[in-house]
Amino acid sequence: MLSAKVRRKIAPSNGETDNSADKQEQLLLSATICNGEDLGPFVRKAFASGKPETLLHNLRHFARSKESEIEEVCKAHYQDFILAVDDLRSLLSDVDSLKSSLSDSNSKLQSVAGPLLASLDSYLEAQTVSHNVNLALSLIFSCIKLSGLCSRSNYHLSRGNFYMALKCVDSIETEFLDKTPSSTLKRMLEKKIPEIRSHIERNVSKEFGDWLVEIRVVSRNLGQLAIGQASAARQREEDLRIKQRQAEEQSRLSLRDCVYALQEEEEDGLSGVMGDDGKDGYGNGGGNGLLGFDLTPLYRAYHIHQTLGLEDRFKQYYFENRKLQLTSDFQVSSMTPFLESHQTFFAQIAGFFIVEDQILRTGGDLISRMEVENLWETAVSKMCSVLEDQFSRMQTANHLLLIKDYVSLLGVTLRRYGYPVDALLDVLSKHRDKYHELLLSDCRTQIAEALAADKFEQMLMKKEYEYSMNVLSFQLQTSDIVPAFPYVAPFSTTVPDCCRIVRSFIEDSVSFMSHGGQLEFFDVVKKYLDRLLSEVLDEALLKLINASVHGVSQAMQVAANMAVLERACDFFFRHAAQLSGIPLRMAERGRRQFPLNNARDAAEEMLSGLLKQKVDGFMTLLENVNWMADEPTQSGNEYVNEVMIYLETLVSTAQQILPVPVLKRVMQDVLSHISEMIVGALLGDSVKRFNVNAIMGIDVDIRLLESFADNQAALLSDGDANQFKTALAEARQLINLLLSNHPENFLNPVIRERSYNTLDYRKVMTVSEKLRDPSDRLFGTFGSRAARQNPKKKSLDTLIKRLKDAS
């Protein structure tokens, strides 16, 4: 022990060689162990630093430091341990005394118990006699219980409680039949028990047969109720979406602050259709008083057959009968149009499978899930066949939509019960194209009727509700300010009529595409909307423009209508996106060009053509121009004055209904036509020759037209007014060339591109040859005929010669 002490004292001396950090860590570890604290941080630190040996070394060091303390404690308690051993040795004598006392007590007990054993033998003999008496009594009581069970069985039979009667019969058969002491009573029981069971089986089978007849009517009513509730739930969802769209629209337009409380009503479901109350202990899936939907007869028959041991036979009988009922439900009457009978047809099938779902969930093993799935597959196949056949015969879009909506409601209803309806939805999707073709045909007829009724007059609205119905509902307004009434719209009645037709098309298309299993169908709706606008409406407008527009006022009205329809098309695509549940930003991202481009261009072309015809009437006054005038005119020729009066009147009228871009394009076309007429007059055979004075007069005419274009800056922007002037560019550049002192500059490519870029060199050559004026005013002042030639005349001759050589 002394050597051990020496070794323990040496261990700390080895620690003195460690650095100060190790000593500090040892001290912290020792303090932590002494205080009873957690050593987790030291362990984590050791493993984190990758030096667990250091921690182990410190722990061993601490243990060695505590060994000496343990030895001191042992020494302090050594004497106490010796004293305890001495005390135990002193108890041995007391234990020996106790053992002797117990032996004496046992001897006394044996001597006293002898008489008692004799009494026990007498008691056992009396017990044997009592057992024989009790056996006799039990046989008597058994006969009494058997008689009671027979009486109770008769009572339950008379009350129709067949299950209780069977339980009594089973008790008699299992508990008393073999133990009955009376042979007569036993023979009676063996005869009556099968008769009772046969009687009960006949009665419950009759009740089950009556239930099979009744459940067909109940199934139809149940299916109609379930589909009606699905329709009501869908309508609530639609109402919520409408309110949400209204809130979003009000927020977008910032008309006013609107707060909508969109509260979804609790879905009623079919909780009231299938009650839980039953009788005779058959309460699972019991009846409802309103529809008489009661499964008690079925469950009682099933339970009785289970009790009779005929469970499999009853399940087979039930399945075959229900399968026959379903087959009869598939029959479609040829005497009644399917449009009138389709609701009854589908409601009957829906009710059938709602009942089967209830029986599957609450009827135990009466029918298996596999059997229900097989019935459903048969039903889906038949319904798909019927739909294919009926859809192929339909030629009215509305009829097809009505049936599609009911079938989709059927799908929603039965999907809640776990039935797959994808095959039905696939049939609906398959006839998507046919439905839209029929819908396009209907819209084509409606649009043709609406256009035929148009009187090409601005629409008058006397009341605010008319403005809301015809303008605001299609977002045709150009300002958020409601105008004063009566209000004369810039469009005719054709516009709101066509907008209503297109909006109805969108809503019908979305109605067909929604609830059909396809979540994102905006692209499909947009495709058919494009077809309606570009094929149906555009073609109808083209036909109207080509066949019915004969005057400037009619053409102007049609052009104004086209501008409004362009805004309406924006609304159509936004409306389709909203109904399809697509954010407007995504719809805007996929926008295409104006689908009525052809009709718009035709309307503007028709208007321009009619205006050109009017202008042509005034331009005939060009024949009155004096092409060899002695002096240039200062106020313009007669034709330009007439044209100016007409154009100013036209602009003041057109700006009331035509949008600025349309007016700009039309007026630019008209001015370009006037420019072409002036150039054409100079090129024409009717003008053989002209002088500079006549050209100066034409220059004044063009200046008047350019002044007219400048005056439109109040209506148009400065850039648009400059575009008006560019429409006169050909006539202006030709006159500038003829009045130039150096017409030969036309041959310079740089100057030609800058100042004469609209002129054709053949036209320049033809017109230049007609400019033959011998007066000094044309080519300058000559001293005599022998004087040198005028430089301008020389330049013009050079130009003509060079152009001839180039041609």
UniProtKB/TrEMBL annotation:
Domain Exocyst complex subunit EXOC6/Sec15 C-terminal positions: 424-770
Alphabetized Gene3D superfamilies for the sequence: Dsl1p vesicle tethering complex, Tip20p subunit, domain D, Exocyst complex subunit Sec15 C-terminal domain, N-terminal subdomain
UniProt subcellular location: Cytoplasm, Cytosol
Keyword Oxidoreductase among record annotations: no
Ranges where the Exocyst complex component EXOC6/Sec15 N-terminal domain occurs: 58-227
Bias-annotated ranges (Basic residues): 1-10
Region of interest: Disordered: 1-22
Alphabetically ordered keywords of this record: Cytoplasm, Exocytosis, Transport
One of the GO biological process terms: intracellular protein transport
Single GO cellular component term: membrane
Keyword NADP applies: no
InterPro entries associated with the record: EXOC6/Sec15, EXOC6/Sec15_C, EXOC6/Sec15_C_dom1, EXOC6_Sec15_N, EXOC6PINT-1/Sec15/Tip20_C_dom2
Purpose: Component of the exocyst complex involved in the docking of exocytic vesicles with fusion sites on the plasma membrane during regulated or polarized secretion. Involved in polarized cell growth and organ morphogenesis. During cytokinesis, involved in cell plate initiation, cell plate maturation and formation of new primary cell wall.
Entry's family note: Belongs to the SEC15 family.
PANTHER family xref list: EXOCYST COMPLEX COMPONENT SEC15B, SEC15
Name of this protein: Exocyst complex component
Species this chain originates from: Salix purpurea (Purple osier willow)
Lineage, broadest ranks: Eukaryota, Viridiplantae, Streptophyta, Embryophyta, Tracheophyta
